Amino acid sequence: MSSRYAVSLESAAEEPAADLVGGKCAGLLALVGAGQPVPRAFAVTVDAFRALFTDPALRESVGAALAGLDPADLARTETVSSEIRRLVSGHPVPSEIEEDISAAYRALCAALGRPDAPVAVRSSATSEDLAQTSFAGQYDTCLWIQGAEAVLDAVRHCWSSLWTTRALTYRAAHGVSDEELGMAVCVQEMVDARTAGVAMTLNPVNGDRSKIVIEAGWGLGEPVLSGEVTPDHYLVDKVLLVPVRTVVGAKFHEMVPAPGGQGLLRRPVDDARRATPCLSTEEVVEIARVAKQAERSCGAPQEIEWALARGLPASSGLRLLQSRAETVWSRRSGPAAEVTAASGAAGIAKALTGM
Amino acid sequence: MAITSHGEFPSPFELPEPPGAEGWQRLYPYHLLFQPERREEDESAFWFCDSQHWPDVIKPFETIGVDFAVKCLGEYNTRYFLVPTSYGLERRIHHGYCYLSPVPVPADRVAERVPEFERRAGHYFGHWEHLLAHWKRKVLDTVRELEAVRFDPLPQTRSVEDIEAGAGPDASDALLTGYDRLIALCHRAWQHHFEFLNLGYAAYLDFFLACRRWFPDIPDLGVARVVQGVDMELFRPDEELKRLAKLALELGVESRLTPADPGVHTLEALAASGRPGRDWLDAWDAARDPWFNFTSGNGFYASDVYWRDDPSLPLGYIRDYVLRLLRGETIDRDLPGLVADRERITGEYRALLDPAERPAFDAKLRVARQAYPYVENHNFYIEHWTMGVFWRKARELSRLLRTAGFWPADGDMFHLTRDEVREALFDHVNAWASGGRPMGCDYWPPEVERRRRIMAALARRRPEPALGVPPPSITEPFTIMLWGIDEERIRSWLDGYSAHGALTGVPASPGTAEGPARVVHGAQDLSLVQEGEILVASVTAPSWAPVFGKVRAAVTDIGGVMSHAAIVCREYSLPAVTGTGGASTVIATGRRIRVDGTAGTVTVLD
Questions:
Q1: pLDDT number for residue B128
Q2: If both were cysteines, with which of A28, A34, B221, B555 could A297 make a disulfide (CB 3.0 to 4.6 Å apart)?
Q3: What pLDDT sits at residue A9?
Q4: CB B474 within 8 A of CB B480
Q5: Domain range spanning residue A26?
Q6: Among B148, B510, B530, which residue's Cα sits nearest to residue A242?
Q7: What is the total count of domains within chain A?
């Protein structure tokens, strides 16, 4: 399945360029290429977005709305933001694009063996996820989207998130020109997660690269990513793949599919489950193992979103939803070790006395 | 982390003695006891039970190990190498068990010891192999001198030739000086023992502490697996058993080595069986000296049985190996696999370092790997070989005095302290000289009987893991390294056991296993261990290696990541949790347990 505007992400053999599918999709492709377990997905290419913007009427109205905007004026920026978002998401999509997206979605449903399969629709901006700018999470993600029409709406919603207030102010502050903007969109099989969260292939507290930090909450990873719950925290030794320390968080709520499979539901977690670790030792080790591989195949420390599919063991149920280069410690050296180079008796004397 | 619990361990002065053990204090020398004159000082100190070396009640004669080992350990730190931060250990016997308390160097004396330590220890590290070769010669000399000690019965009369030669000192003199020599050589053996040991641990510690800085929170196990050797002399006795088992199959004599109760008769039958049997016996004899100078215990107990003295032990292990070979199992350790694993782990940690740090990593690791094999191998030379000869000679003397009427059973001498034995020996030679009857023949039999009852009463109670007041923090590296005692361990002892039926300890060898527990209180229980069980013991000895081929995992009460159980389990790729504090008392044989050697937990399942 491949067309001008929708490209499968299931085979790295096709290798669409990162500037065509955006950073997020490129990261997923790298994982696919390394044989990592990622959900089925396709990318709505940047070309689709650009095709939309070939319409001079849309370009002019967006340009007019932005004219003379002072990003320091937050109230005004918000008004402009919602105006542009309305313009973009309401603009008619060329039928060729619409057909490509619908066809790709139908193919995805067929592959999953489920009509109207729920998907996650994620922004995959060309300037997002680059290692040098901590731009992750700037743009919108729509979860549990079902049906071709809803998918198209979600894609348009993602496009429009290029003009959220925070994106506008960020671009202004960092001098990113609107002319360079591009947005691909990732449409990914929705994983009904028993537990989900993030994994970092270094310890963000001190930059120690011999550790993997895993954070986990119940249900979908959304409450963990947005910081709405205090997740479980697992510190794992990367070389031995053994857990070093576990701190169980208070996971007050979780996001799960609504009964009947229509949409999502946020619900409280009862006291017992709140204090129960989301992951067994085996699951922690499996996530760490896969994260270590992802780091190796990407060649740099990674931040990974993962999910464990409900009803499956870690060995077959683990999915990596996205992976991006870690941007904070990657630019610095690791912990200041202050280890004396002396060895033998002199080294021992210094180690014992702390001198 | 400081210890936040308000808890204290029991005062040694307030714990009631076990029923029937009244008067136990008088069995031990005054300097080994908590004395009322020092109550205030001793009550406010922290004492941990060294059940790693003394898991069982210590008989009066066996205090020789407490005295000499702890004394020599301290001597090398305090007076020989001048370790900057650590003197030795105070030691006490309480209710028959050994308690230790580290003696720190006063803060204002640390700095002046540093240059001295660097000079002295530096000399050893700089000349390690040469000095170690010298050490081996010294140990072998000690073994030879011990072998030469004889406790021959006293003659009825001196010979006429002696009279005519004006021979002077008599056989009683030989007996008394022989005993003094036995004790002095034991003392010397323990001096040998610690000549390299503290430095071996220190070199390990230097690398360990550096790793802690490079990789905060690195598991102890990670460092251990980088440093630890794989092909050590300590494993040689077990390797010899495996070799003999394979040879039995090659020579076609395997059926003679699989009787239900192998023993001396097995060897006799082989000798009478013809050429292949005799060939096998030649190989057995070649292996026996020195490799079967190997104790079923740890060298500290008179009851230790040495393979050389009781062939049923090595023959039993050989039988198990033969049976496994016949079932088509592999009995060899995967040495290339262990080596590859070690190099992979080392390479991965090293690659994670900033390149500027790698020379320090390499240098410290080189010293640690050079020094570390001694930490294991000395065990064979001292605890097994030298102490094996020592206990054999001591048993000979005990038999001599039993024959003279001092006590009813062969090993009863060990109910006396070594100074009391010297008195009894003088009593014996005095009676020989006077022609009268030794006082000991009337005094000792009921006294030995009384002591036997006290020992049995003491043995019915397991020791408290610690006594006194825990320190605000434990920084003394040897205590942490050698005994696995850190603040977390103390807190878990104070908290007792968690409510979920789970015990926590040191994650000492990775992996998980489930199975029925087999609680082993000593080498005498080893033959009960069945295939697929999980070994639960207060502490294990290196010589238990052959049973590690049968069990699925091991759990101990005491010991850190460098304890014998931990090292052997890593060698045999079995999960292990050490330092649980009380697994061997809480878990009963037959209970199904789950051992998570990665997380350091033991869960009772039923």
A1: 95
A2: A34
A3: 86
A4: yes
A5: 6-189
A6: B510
A7: 2
Same domain, A185 and A197: no
| Closest residue on chain B to A280 (Cα) | B599
Same-domain status, A149 and A205 = no
A350 inside domain: no
Residue A332, pLDDT above cutoff 80? no
- Each residue of A226-246: pLDDT tens digit? 777 888 999 999 999 999 999
CATH architecture of the domain formed by B500-604: 3-Layer(bba) Sandwich (3.50)
Distance, CA of A299 to chain centre: 18
Contact A348 B512 (CB under 8 A): no
Least Cα distance to A220 among A143, A114, A335 occurs for A143
Residue ranges in chain B modelled with pLDDT below 50: 1-6, 497-500
Is position A344 within any domain? no
Say whether both A148 and A201 belong to one domain: no
Q: Is the ipTM of this complex over 0.95?
A: no
Give the tens place of pLDDT for each residue, B462-510.
888 899 998 877 766 667 776 777 777 777 777 654 434 578 887 888 8
| Same-domain status, A41 and A171 | yes
Contact check, Cβ <8 Å, A343/B222? no
Which of B77, B118, B350 would you mutate first to test chain A, the one with the most A CBs within 10 A?
B118
For chain B, the domains span: 127-198+372-458, 500-604
User: Is A211 domain-assigned?
Assistant: yes
Q: Give alpha helix (H) positions in A37-182.
A: 46-52, 56-66, 74-90, 95-112, 148-160, 165-174
Query: Are residues A89 and A129 located together in one domain of the fold?
Result: yes
Interface of B with A in 222-281 (CB under 8 A): 222, 225
Residues A75 and A209 in one domain: no
Burial B352-372 (b: 16+ CB within 10 A, else e): bbeeebeebbebbbebbbbbb
Q: What is the DSSP letter of B154?
A: P
CA separation for the pair A244, A154 (Å, rounded):
41
Cross-chain residue pair A340–B119, CB shorter than 8 Å: no
Q: Are residues A227 and A288 in the same domain?
A: yes
Task: For residues B391 and B388, give the distance between their C-alpha atoms in angstroms, rounded to a whole number.
Answer: 5
Radius of gyration of chain B (CA): 25
Q: Are strands A318-325 and A302-309 parallel, antiparallel or unpaired?
A: antiparallel
Of A140, A164, A189, which marks where a domain is finished?
A: A189
pLDDT for the residue numbered B301: 95
Residues in a beta bridge with A41:
A188
The residue of chain B nearest to residue A342, with distances taken between CA atoms, is B360
Across the beta sheet with B512-520, what order do the strands follow? B502-504, B601-604, B592-596, B512-520, B534-537, B553-556, B576-578, B506-509
Interface test with A, best of B206, B228, B342, B481 (most A CBs within 10 A): B206
| CATH code, domain with A72 | 3.30.1490.20
A103 is a domain residue: yes
Neighbours of B159 (CB within 10 A): 10
Tell me the CATH number at A287.
3.30.470.20
Is the domain of A172 the same as that of A202? no
By Cβ distance, the residue of B205, B367, B512 closest to A343 is B367
Distance, in Å, from the CA atom of B370 to the CA atom of A190, rounded to the nearest integer, reads 55
